[in-house]
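In the current project phase, our protein records have gained a structure token line. A sample record follows, to show the layout:
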Amino acid sequence: MRESEALSKAGAEVSLCTFQGILGQKELEIPHRMVTSSRAGVLLGIILHLLLSLKANPLKSAVIWFVEQFTTLLLAVKLRKALKYDVIYLRDGDPFIFTPFLFGLVFKNHKWVISLIGVKALIPPFVSWYHKLFYKLINASIWKPVYRHSFIRNQFIFTCQNEYMKDYFETNFLGGILAGRIAVVPIGVEQPENNISQEDARRYLSLPGDKTILLHFGSLHSGKDIETVIAAIKDIPDACLVHAGAVDVRLFLMTSGKLADLIKHYGLQDRIIIRNHFIPESEKQYYFGAADAVILSYKKDSTQTASLYWQAARFGLPTIASDIGELGELIKEYKTGELFIAEDVLSLKRALCRFMLSDQGERLVMRDNCKRFCNKFSLNEWAKNCIEQMRYG
């Protein structure tokens, strides 16, 4: 939603195409088409919803995800003549990166700009058998002629959010078949905003007013490391951890057991609060407003862009983060928080103590640095960079 509006403000004529709309978001002022707007689409949506309600299974979830992406891109391709657009911009082309190339076998003279975020299923090492199976599938040599034929018939441009992801896709994905076709376009963020006092935000969310609240935000995935956070929190009695975002404990299994079991093991039921549901944009400001800092804890091998760092900066919130890749580099450069060694409990404890001992003057400097970061990585700059790639490649 934010990117579509930013592209429109930057001068592009934008139409948005989704499977069934944007969850928890306001109505857009730009044209918006949905697969489920048609009778066949409504029926497909019902079937997928019923499948999703059945017992959790990673293969079933992957099939549903693929069907949604495939039908959405099919609708976008079919609308090309009617809407007369120049570019299909596919936001988050992975893990089903091969889908546009399948369309390229049938359709020609399309220009695709595809963003790649580095979904964990594409990047080893893997823990689960289905990630290993999927990695072998999309890296199978049988795909190479499909890609090459689609390259001849259509134009493909790829964007990554940081140099680490670009290097991975150019050197390790399918024998380097994307080499020379990928540009780095950092993500953008809205200008800083926080019109809600911490007291009001905590009251609204029913959070304790006498604790240092550390926010762990967003859905859990295999690249995140909440185990280290929980283990570090147990020895800091003045800290309260709030996780806000969907947690599927049937799929997200950790080495020490399920999330609820880990919290119980450390006896932290009264200091760790789990809000296990999707957090709409309208509520996000309350969670960031209530917190003293955001914790971004990732595994050592994580190379994805930590988009939540951009959101923390947007709300002027200091960040306590793993010292990996781009995330560590940005915090060192902009001085917006504290760093700790990834997957190291003792290092995180030290970082938490440093932050909790910091005075209001030091935290104010961090907030001012957040504004400086937002000016550098504004959504307007992202839109300009993205449009330049769409025009010239």
Remarks:
- The longest strand covers residues 111-116.
